[in-house]
């Protein structure tokens, strides 16, 4: 027995129910019962967490949903903005080539009828006829058949759809990059003489003889032979010779007008109706013989 | 004395050890809370706002909303039936209004069970904890996740009132069948608002979140009612309802809103539509972008299609003697397309979406059988000097196949009928003549024609393609026959006309563009032959079932009666019907007689088309200018007087084609 061990039961009880022990027990009981009664632990932790809420990360399902929703809206807005920008660009632009450059494959934009007419009129008549016959254009735009005009981008250029009120395509045009480039870069005007092009070989005529033959044709045939007189009249210099291409393409044959201006020589290409050129050829041959 | 000393020492040791343990525990928990707290998800200011996401809407062809995508419609507590609130509280957390995020006694019990009774896991999640889990955490089962969930629930309780918590909770729980939130669930299952729910309906709904699929009343009403009984009992035990009310509610069988089943994602058409939208815009935009989609779906036709297919298959069950619900039953699919545009008007991909979501209309590639012959005949007319009045002989055919045994096709009736013109051969679906035609054209040319018409499934370059041994989908067949219906113009099938954003700005618009892929005159000749199939040939059941409008079509039955098809069209609507087992099995009646396309699929087609076109004026197929109708002898193919009493048929021939050497003018 150690010197500090209690001497008897009385002493043991006295020590067991001492102030410190009773206090610890009561405090423990109060803590437990008050927790069950007042939920102070949960409140304490909840309050603490609320106080640091602003510095905690935005993570978890609901935040992800929020972000996804935001992303979805941004995506839709981006698509709409892109469409609006393209539409605004198309309304501003002054050439089909400009629209085609802007449109990605599969992307589309609507054109107002008036704007389409304006763009069409910017084309040299000879090219315009190849793209869309003016008579058909009148029917499409003034004949109450077209509701809207859609331009859709392609890898190789663009397509133009004339749509009725039922969203049906009533006419479509395909403008390939080659066609557009030819128009934009004025491929209808090439430097050099007619001899530069083998395709004119043996079919080059002095201007007087050419026009002499032209005037022998019936008057109503001449517009089919020289559809774009403005283009010819706008050129500087004088026509010295005219060549006839040796191949037809889509019902047209190219005529080459050799212009001389100061020390420069260039050839202007015009598309003439195949059958009119054939008639002209007969007259030229007759004149030749 | 020594004994007392020992007891005293133990007591003293236990006391101080307990004290240290409790202190350490409190200290450890405090440290854990501090450590975990900084990495807990932030709570949004307003819990109710986080469940509001803009809905994408799908409209049908008449402009009615047929589906909301990603919708979470929130309703205030005041607009929810008190019976539902009582039911959900009684079932999920009856002490919800007393605790502060945790039910301590239940948690201690659950902890004890989980720790000391291996194999048993007891849950004690309160409504607040469930909310915390649904809003912020995954469904991974771990103590760490549970602890974090507990802490977040304490914060929710500290910063929100009980009413707010309950409101958010009932607006975000899943009830199954695509319904999230009580308002949507009430509408989906009962066609009413959450405010109008009766005790019986409210108790049924409150039982669903435990396992939305298992208790889905559309599938398992019996299970849903059993679960409702548990809910009612708990409501009674917790004092929300009396004994009488419990009995009364338990005796009520709520009427489900079956008419609106297709207004949810539970429709083959809408599933296919969502898939194509996701392919175009991605899942995020479709479900959360708030877009408006104008579908080609015509709800009336969709309903007719569903009914026709279901009733047709039920008739077939009877003929086949399939009475056991658990026995495999034949499936079916129906697709209806508008030939002039390609718009899909109706699509049913199976007997019942709720039994099987597999869309057979778009995904099941099944042998078309004789349904493929129109492509063969078109190819023959287009590439050979043949037309419907050309004569051929139904005879045994042996076609050498390099590296394989010779192919010897047999007729359906097994016999041979001798000389006949091609129109008769098509009408009677003579296999040997189709085989001779493919021998003339080569299978590659037939494949080319099928491709031109829009068949995209893999097609093998073999002679048997003439008899439809390649697998194709009903959607492909309907689209491909639409090309004939529109006399050679192809319109690819599509499911939506337009997509707009929430403000009505157009994101996409479908343009109807006809691509001339077949010669109109030749296409008409095939159409004229297919008209005869319906009027006098293998598809005559269409007429027997009361469809009287001008139409054309072709039956198809694959080898050993595995598949039965009928694809046909009027000038306004082209429909393909397929029936067969999912697992390749023979379709046969009680007497073992195989079921053909004419017997199995044509009646379904006729029922659908009769009702679908009931209000439409009768329209005939336009006849191309170059077509002439000639009366000929069905055996020789030579012209005969139309007034003669001899057997004769009328064939469509083009100007310049010859009949027995005589040129048609």
Structure description:
The complex is a heterodimer of chains A (289) and B (665). Chain A contains 13 helices and nine strands. With 289 residues, chain A is of the alpha+beta class. A five-stranded antiparallel beta sheet of chain A has the order 5-9-8-7-6. In chain A, strands 1-2-3-4 form a four-stranded antiparallel beta sheet. The N and C termini of chain A lie far apart (153 Å). Chain B is α+β, with helices and mostly antiparallel strands. Among the domains of chain B are: 1-39; 72-262, Orthogonal Bundle (Penicillin binding protein transpeptidase fold), CATH 1.10.3810; 627-663, no CATH class. Chain B contains 23 helices and 24 strands. Chains A and B meet through α1, α2, α3 and α4 of A and α1, α4, α5, α12 and β16 of B.
Blueprint of the fold:
The complex is a heterodimer of chains A (289) and B (665).
Chain A: H1 9-16, H2 19-38, H3 40-51, H4 61-92, H5 96-102, E1 108-111, H6 113-122, H7 125-131, H8 134-142, E2 148-154, E3 157-163, E4 169-176, H9 177-184, E5 189-191, E6 204-206, H10 207-216, H11 222-225, H12 229-234, E7 238-249, E8 252-261, E9 264-273, H13 274-288
Antiparallel strand pairs in A: 1-2, 2-3, 3-4, 5-9, 6-7, 7-8, 8-9
Chain B: H1 2-37, E1 56-59, E2 65-69, H2 82-92, H3 104-116, H4 127-136, H5 143-159, H6 162-172, E3 174-176, E4 179-180, H7 182-190, H8 199-207, H9 221-237, H10 243-250, H11 268-281, H12 283-288, E5 292-295, H13 299-320, E6 331-337, E7 344-348, H14 360-363, E8 366-367, H15 373-383, E9 391-394, E10 399-401, E11 404-407, E12 418-421, H16 422-427, H17 431-441, H18 443-452, E13 471-472, H19 474-485, E14 489-490, E15 496-500, E16 506-509, E17 515-516, H20 520-535, H21 541-544, E18 552-557, E19 563-569, E20 574-580, H22 597-600, H23 602-612, E21 627-632, E22 649-654, E23 658-659, E24 662-663
Parallel strand pairs in B: 1-5
Antiparallel strand pairs in B: 1-2, 3-4, 5-15, 6-7, 6-20, 8-13, 9-12, 10-11, 14-17, 15-16, 18-19, 19-20, 21-22, 23-24
